[in-house]
Structure formats: C-alpha cells, structure tokens
Amino acid sequence: MKRFKQNLDGDHLSTHLDLDTRNALRDPDRKSGLSSMKVMGIFVAGLIVFSVLFSVNVVLRDPPSDAVFETSKARVLEVEHRKDSEDQFSESLDVPKDKLLRGLLTDGFDEGSCVSRYQSASYRKELPYRPSSYLISKLRSYEALHKRCGPYTESYNKTLEQLKSGYHTSSLDCNYVVWISFSGLGNRILTLASAFLYAVLTNRVLLVDPGVDMVDLFCEPFPEVSWFLPMDFPLKNQFDSLDQKSPHCYGKMLKKNSNFTNSDGSVMPSFVYLHLAHDYDDQDKLFFCSQDQTFLQKIPWLIMKTDNYFVPSLFLVPSFERELNNLFPRKETAFHFLGRYLFHPTNVVWGLITRYYKAYLEKADERIGIQIRVFDTGTGPFQHVFDQILACAVKENLLPEINRQDFIVSPLGTPKSKAVLMTSLSTGYFEKLRDMYWEHPTVTGEVIGIYQPSHEEYQQTEKLMHNRKAWTEMYLLSLTDVLVTSSWSTFGYVAQSLGGLTPWILYKPENRTAPDPPCQRAMSMEPCFHAPPFYDCKAKTGVDTGKLVPHVRHCEDMSWGLKLVDS
C-alpha cells in the first residue's frame, strides 16, 4: 500500500509539472521560475551521478576482503545452526581450545548432553596449576575400572550376589564404596570428592546414591557407565537407618572386638558401614589408621555416610602418603582438580549460570565475589556483619571508598568497572551495599555494580530449585577474580576451590561485634576438614594432627580443623 501511495503521489506530481510547463508557455513571467527549477534539478542529478561513480571506483579499486564474505557466511550458518540445534547452549560459546583442562578430562562424551563439561573453560582464566601426569594416568585407569565394574556389568552383578548372601566367601574382581547422599549441598560436594579420592587410592569403584536431586544437578563424570547407584540396590532402603548403632557399623564392630569372621573363620562380612559424620567417635575415626585400612581392603562393599571433607586426614595415612604425593605434588590443588573433574553442572543449571554471568558479570573489568553465611540467631541483616564485610573489602583494596562530599568524581581516563556478586540467604547486605555505591560516587571514580542472584531466606536442603540456585551461586562465585568468604562455610569452600581462588576469610563475629581485623587471607584454596581425628595410630595416643607434617595445618577459620597447604 505504501509503494502504491508513492506511485500515486508521483503521478500527481507529474501532472502538476505538466500543468506548470503549459502555464509557463502561456505566461512569460513564470518562465524564469521554471528555469531556476531546471538548473537546480540538473545540479542535484549531477551530484548523484558523481557520488555513484565515486562509489564504483572505490569498490573496484579496493573490493571487500574474503574475511567479510566469510564472516557473513559464518553468521548465516550460525543462524541456521541455532534454528536446527537441539542444544540450547552450543551456539553461545565456541568450545575452548583447552576443553580437556590440560588432560584432566577425557574426550568422547556427547557434548550436547552436558554442555558445561567442555564449555566451562571459556568462562575461567587459565590457571597456572597443571595436573600431574600421574593424576591424569590414574584417572584414565579409574575410568577403565568403572567401565568394567560399574552398574549392571557382569562383575557388578557377580559382586551383588555375594552382598545379598550376607557374607564374603571368595575374592572378587571389583570392590566398591557407596556414598550416601547426606547433608547440605556444599557438604555433599566436598564429601563426594573425598569419597572419590578414597576410591582411587583403594582401587574401588565409587557409586553415588542419587538422593532427591543429584541427577538433576550433576552430569555423569565417567564415560559410558553411570556413577549413580541403581534404584534396585539391595541395601538402599537401609540408608536412612544406618548409624553408629547399626550392626555393620565399623566403629561398633571394633567396640565388640569382633574378628569379622564366622565361627569357622572362613568368611568375612559382605559389607561394612563407615560412619564418618561430624558426630563419629574414637572407634569410627580408626578408619584413618593404616592397619584398619589393611583390613577394610578385604571387604567388597563399603557404605559411607559423611558430612566432612576428610581429604587432609588421608594425607596423614602412611599407606596413602606416597600415592597422594604423586597425585598432587602441589597439595592445595587436591579439591580443585577433583572438583573440576567430577562436578559439571547439568544443562538446566548451566543455563542459570551462563545467563546470569552474561547479563551481570561478563562485561566488568573485575569481578568480586562476597559469600555471606551468618550463624547468629535472630532476624538479620545485622549491622556488625555489614560493617565487617565493608571493612574487609575496603581494607584489602577490593572495593574503593565512597566520596560523601562530591556528587560526581571524574576519573582520569576510562573509569574501571567492578561487578560485585553477593550470595546470602538475606537481601539486606546486598541492598545496603548497592544503595551505598548508588547514592555516592567512589573516590577513585570506579563504577561499582552490586548483584545478588537469589535470597532464599533460610536453607531448604530438600528443595530442588533451592539446590539448583545454590549450585548456580557456588559456581558463579568460582568465576570471580577475587573472593571473600565466611568462616565455617562449605558453600564458600566449594566456590574458592573450584575457582582456584585463595580467599579472604571473614572472621566469625563474637558478641555481635565486627572483628578487628575483619578478615584474613587464607593459606591456601583448600577446604577445611571440620572434625578431624587427633590420634596417633602407631603410638595409640592423642596427638595434634595439625603439626605432624608441613602440608597439613590447622584452618584459619576453625582452629581445630585441618587443611592442606603448600610449604
């Protein structure tokens, strides 16, 4: 209709011109006006012709490069790929050159089924840490073992028959450690890494109780054969009732001085329950003694329940010492490599991560993570906690001070932008910090953006969406450049270790007063083992296990805890 209207207008104009021409012939006084219009028309036409000729000359002399055509072609192909692909993420990022993380990961997975596995490297700065060749070799060996002995394989079915019988009567090709899904998400991630390392050290296959949400949160880390425990596993209905009073609990069996055999001495129990939770007792803690490990090697099925990151104490077991030194020449990289190998967000979680990162964090010159966990009772936010967070960030030059006198501060050159990612169950601290940097300019002229993905108000361990958000926020924190964490928080431990970040740790406030100094730089990026044993297995006496070797020290945030450091 628009084109049709233009044509009508054009015809109408032509009619007027013809009339003007005829009138000019009849009226000589109008002739001069017509001549002026003709001159102007000729001048405009000349400019148009000159412009066209000039453009043709430039194009012929300097035609578009092949790169332009290739770029256009690539964009067309990309659009077609977006229309046809079932993978909602594959177009958003090119797969990084080092998608295998210097050999830590193995190739051959279907990339669309778990996009994060190979794309996550594109969101991180390349770290100076390199996995040892021994660790890489050991992981490939474990993958072969898992493929041979995983769920529903011939070896698995054979071992399962002995488990059902209740007794272990002959040696088997495959032994197992079953990890029970227990506690909050941060604890589960740390304990699952611990259980996997124990499986590698003892040549066992790790099988994971899926619980209520593990399948929804984490991709399969091993090729071809699942790490999830089958739903028809015969002991599964006993998991909730297993505790220190259970007949198969290792600690209780030791208390009864059981020799773990039948009356004729010919058989062993088909499984042993390992209670390694925070409330475990002295007998349970003998798990960390070499002589007890020698016995446990004979048991085909170990069922483990723990809420502790117990890796530091594995480094104190003499029979594991040499192997661990070969696996991790740099001790503080233990969880970093285990976590990057095992924990890949599922596509639904990866979508939450990447959308938020691109919207709020990607374009900043620097990303700062602040993880807040408050253990005080009562309704927050608490002013002393906010004061402590701000004091730490400003004192350590993570955030600039504000200028309360001037309305505008003009920086020299382009102002630097900083994106602050805050995680907390409450919005109070986020709102205070956001308003402060909105209402006042910074003394440096830097532009500060404050962001918080969620505010769940209280921990909801069994809720699926709550745990999706928790996993998303841990991962987003691990993508920051610098990190501030709260004392005692496994949420923060996961973020710092996955990201290879040595955090500033906020001291735990006492008497609702902000500590001075407010925070301390951690000795390493490793998590803290909150409930380690203090026992010398050889001397059979108590000992300070934080002073036995240089690479196992007491934690900064928990004086009795243990963590791995590098001398």
Automatic annotation (TrEMBL):
<keyword id="KW-0325">Glycoprotein</keyword>
<keyword id="KW-0961">Cell wall biogenesis/degradation</keyword>
<dbReference type="GO" id="GO:0042546">
    <property type="term" value="P:cell wall biogenesis"/>
</dbReference>
<keyword id="KW-0328">Glycosyltransferase</keyword>
<comment type="function">
    <text>May be involved in cell wall biosynthesis.</text>
</comment>
<dbReference type="Pfam" id="PF03254">
    <property type="entry name" value="XG_FTase"/>
</dbReference>
<dbReference type="GO" id="GO:0071555">
    <property type="term" value="P:cell wall organization"/>
</dbReference>
<comment type="similarity">
    <text>Belongs to the glycosyltransferase 37 family.</text>
</comment>
<dbReference type="GO" id="GO:0009969">
    <property type="term" value="P:xyloglucan biosynthetic process"/>
</dbReference>
<feature type="transmembrane region" description="Helical">
    <location>
        <begin position="39"/>
        <end position="60"/>
    </location>
</feature>
<keyword id="KW-0472">Membrane</keyword>
<protein>
    <recommendedName>
        <fullName>Fucosyltransferase</fullName>
        <ecNumber>2.4.1.-</ecNumber>
    </recommendedName>
</protein>
<keyword id="KW-1133">Transmembrane helix</keyword>
<dbReference type="GO" id="GO:0008107">
    <property type="term" value="F:galactoside 2-alpha-L-fucosyltransferase activity"/>
</dbReference>
<dbReference type="GO" id="GO:0032580">
    <property type="term" value="C:Golgi cisterna membrane"/>
</dbReference>
<keyword id="KW-0333">Golgi apparatus</keyword>
<keyword id="KW-0812">Transmembrane</keyword>
<dbReference type="InterPro" id="IPR004938">
    <property type="entry name" value="XG_FTase"/>
</dbReference>
<keyword id="KW-0808">Transferase</keyword>
